């Protein structure tokens, strides 16, 4: 018996390929298949050889009939690939979604078919390019296409491609009857259809199992959190509640499914449902407990879907905070000073304070230099508290107070059993304790050369290795170092590594001594007296004594002096009889080089009598910069630092005048020139 020939006439090559695969699956080798997806290719010979013309769309029917052929013509009824429908299951009811095809009949047929499959809950909007209302599609985010992505409008965010629609089973049966073909393979065609259903069912079953596992994990997480958690749906029904919520509120076990008014009426939840705004950390008194309550609305597609309530027992939180503070204090990881604790109005202090505030904003290493008692650790803590690391630890280590044998294990920690007397569990070093915070290395000039070498490695690699350990531990710390020594001289003497100095001196900060800012003396005295809640009056002669004293111990010495007065003074008037002997004896040397404010004025007047005041200002400015760098310079370097040219004889003349005015100190035998305290004050006056 001759095999019948089926001529496929389709709109596109993709559809033609889909139809051919469908027919082969159903009829196998019992048929011949001819294809035509470009209508102009049709010839009488091609049509004459066919026993059946199968069309993919009714729009082709009129064109075929116009050829006056006697060959039977059939328009294929088409289905939808079941496996692809899974993509539509996650869409919310009444979602607006375009259904995009190239012919209006196809789009209507596809919408009817999707409705029959159970997707009537979606708002399917037909869209055919050139026919549909473009404005209607502007606010729509989803689109369904049947293998024709290129037809979808460009603004669509999510495209669901159901691919080319296959031939429906009923059309296959009609073809079999018309061509007198057996149906022995029909069960394979239907099996594929049902296989997709089984696959979807299996995926759904897996999803349900995964959801159960997820719910179990979620319950474990909720019960592990040490705060009460209650979940409500959009109607106010309790859907979840963790163990802490039961314990804190002393609730019965059968709360799930009840309205919140029955279980937690005191939480004022109704207003949150009305305004749909989160309420954070509100304090409620419930069951004789102080609770810190947070209420967060849950929304989906701008609609309220529920509410999550979390709460903590304030007394428990306070106990935890006290414990954290206690442990931090034990470790010495807290700070107590900020820039507000730095007292004084002198231009030198204000300048140092402003510079420190700017340094705090970066994360580079800071080197603070200054005499003992000038407040180097106060500045270090203030920089930490004003930086992005303020919530991290602040660890201070004083190299002058640690022995050579202890310092390495203190800085880098040690493993258990590393040496005799070591703890079994080992110990974290100060660098590890400072992780994500700041380490303050005070008196860095007292560090031995071997420790300096280890510090250099840590600063370069940002990692440490414990004593007796074999693994490196990465650290993220900011380093602030401080010293009262002349590091430049130490480098020349070979007692301080030059490479370590340049690692530390990224952001230098020089702190002024108290004798350089005598204007702050009585401001500081008033501060200490207020701190001690004591009111003392100072005789005018005592004020002069204190102003003329150099305070070698700086602010620390001044604070000790105030404590001395608190004990020694009876009443509230301080006289010369109350002044310690070493301050009284120092007046003899001070008188020989007394620089009271009136003499400063006289010096300034003397300098202004000539025509060189701008030269004096430039020279003093250059020498002040060198003083902050702890160096003295000769005339050659000074000439290079000046903003304009002065000849050697001109510079020598200006320096001679400044030397007579006690503004500078000229060294002998190439020791260089440096600015004096008088010169610093004169420079400040000239800048005003």
Q: Which class of secondary structure composition applies to the elements?
A: alpha/beta
Give start-end ranges of low-pLDDT stretches. 592-597
Specify the biggest β-sheet. 5 strands, antiparallel
The N- and C-terminal alpha carbons lie at a distance of 118 Å
Q: Work out the number of β strands.
A: 26
Shape: elongated
Work out the helix count: 27
What Rg, in angstroms, do the CA atoms define?
A: 45 Å
Strand content: 15-25%
Biggest sheet, spatial arrangement of strands: 10-9-13-12-11
Helical percentage = 40-55%
Mean pLDDT: 81
What does this structure look like?
The chain is of the alpha/beta class. 42% of the residues lie in helices and 17% in strands. The chain is built from 27 helices and 26 strands. It has a five-stranded antiparallel sheet with strand order 10-9-13-12-11. A hairpin with a 2-residue loop joins β11 (279-286) and β12 (289-300). α11 packs across α12 (376-385). The protein starts with a strand and ends with a helix. Mean pLDDT is 81; it is low at 592-597.
């Amino acid at each position: 018996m001759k095999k019948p020939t089926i001529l496929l006439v389709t709109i596109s090559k993709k559809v033609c390929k889909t139809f051919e695969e469908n027919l082969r699956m159903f009829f196998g080798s019992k048929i011949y298949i001819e294809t035509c997806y470009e209508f102009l290719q049709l010839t009488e010979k091609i049509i004459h050889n066919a026993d059946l013309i199968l069309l993919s769309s009714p729009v082709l029917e009129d064109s075929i009939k116009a050829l006056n052929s006697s060959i039977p013509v059939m328009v294929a009824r088409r289905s939808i690939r079941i496996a692809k429908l899974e993509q539509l299951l996650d869409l919310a009811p009444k979602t607006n979604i375009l259904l995009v095809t190239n012919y209006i009949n196809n789009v209507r047929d596809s919408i009817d078919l999707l409705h029959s499959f159970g997707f009537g809950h979606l708002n399917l909007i037909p869209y055919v390019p050139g026919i549909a209302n473009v404005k209607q599609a502007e606010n729509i985010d989803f689109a369904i296409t049947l293998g024709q992505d290129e037809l979808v409008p460009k603004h669509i965010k999510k495209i669901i491609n159901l691919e080319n629609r296959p031939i429906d089973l009923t059309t296959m049966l009609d073809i079999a009857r018309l061509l007198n073909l057996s149906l022995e393979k029909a069960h394979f065609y239907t099996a594929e259809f049902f296989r997709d259903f089984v696959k979807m069912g299996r995926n759904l079953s897996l999803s349900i199992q995964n959801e159960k596992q997820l719910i179990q994990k979620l319950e474990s997480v909720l019960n592990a959190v040490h705060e009460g958690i209650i979940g409500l749906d959009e109607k106010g029904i309790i859907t979840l509640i963790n163990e802490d919520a039961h314990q804190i509120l002393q609730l019965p076990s059968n709360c799930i499914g009840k309205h919140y008014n029955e279980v937690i009426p005191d939480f004022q939840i109704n207003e949150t449902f009305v305004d749909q705004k989160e309420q954070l950390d509100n304090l409620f008194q419930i069951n004789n407990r102080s609770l810190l309550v947070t209420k967060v609305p849950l929304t989906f597609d701008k609609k309220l879907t529920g509410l999550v309530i979390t709460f903590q027992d304030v007394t428990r939180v306070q106990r935890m905070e006290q414990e954290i503070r206690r442990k931090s204090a034990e470790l010495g990881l807290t700070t107590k000073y900020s820039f507000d604790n730095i007292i004084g109005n002198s231009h030198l202090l204000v300048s140092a304070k402003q510079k420190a505030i700017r340094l705090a904003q970066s994360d580079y290493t800071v080197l603070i230099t200054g005499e003992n008692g000038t407040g180097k650790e106060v500045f270090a803590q203030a920089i930490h508290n004003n930086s992005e690391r303020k919530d991290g630890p602040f660890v201070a280590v004083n190299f002058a107070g640690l022995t050579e044998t202890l310092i390495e294990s203190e800085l880098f920690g040690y493993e258990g059993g590393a040496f005799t007397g070591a703890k079994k569990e080992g110990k974290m070093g100060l660098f590890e304790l400072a992780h994500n915070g700041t380490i303050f290395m005070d008196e860095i000039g007292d560090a031995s050369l071997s420790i300096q070498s280890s510090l250099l490695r840590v600063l370069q690699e940002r990692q440490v290795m414990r004593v007796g350990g074999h693994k490196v531990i990465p650290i993220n710390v900011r380093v602030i170092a401080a010293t009262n020594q002349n590091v430049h001289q130490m480098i020349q003497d070979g007692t301080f590594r030059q490479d370590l100095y340049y690692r530390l001196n990224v952001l230098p900060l020089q702190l002024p001594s108290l004798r350089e800012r005598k204007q702050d003396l009585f401001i500081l005295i008033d501060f200490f007296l207020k701190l001690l809640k004591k009111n003392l009056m100072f005789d005018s002669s005592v004020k002069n004594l204190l102003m003329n004293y150099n305070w070698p111990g700086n602010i620390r010495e001044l604070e000790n002096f105030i404590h001395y007065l608190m004990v020694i003074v009876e009443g509230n008037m301080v006289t010369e009889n109350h002044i310690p002997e070493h301050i009284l004896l120092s007046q003899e040397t001070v008188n020989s080089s007394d620089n009271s404010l009136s003499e400063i004025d006289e010096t300034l007047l003397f300098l202004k009598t000539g025509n060189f005041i701008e030269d004096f200002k430039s020279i003093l400015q250059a020498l002040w910069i060198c003083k902050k760098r702890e160096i003295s310079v000769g005339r050659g370097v000074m000439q290079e630092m000046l903003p304009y040219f002065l000849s050697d004889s001109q510079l020598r003349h200006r320096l001679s005048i400044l030397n007579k005015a006690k503004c500078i100190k000229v060294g002998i035998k190439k020791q260089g020139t440096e600015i004096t305290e008088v010169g610093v004050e004169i420079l400040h006056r000239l800048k005003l």
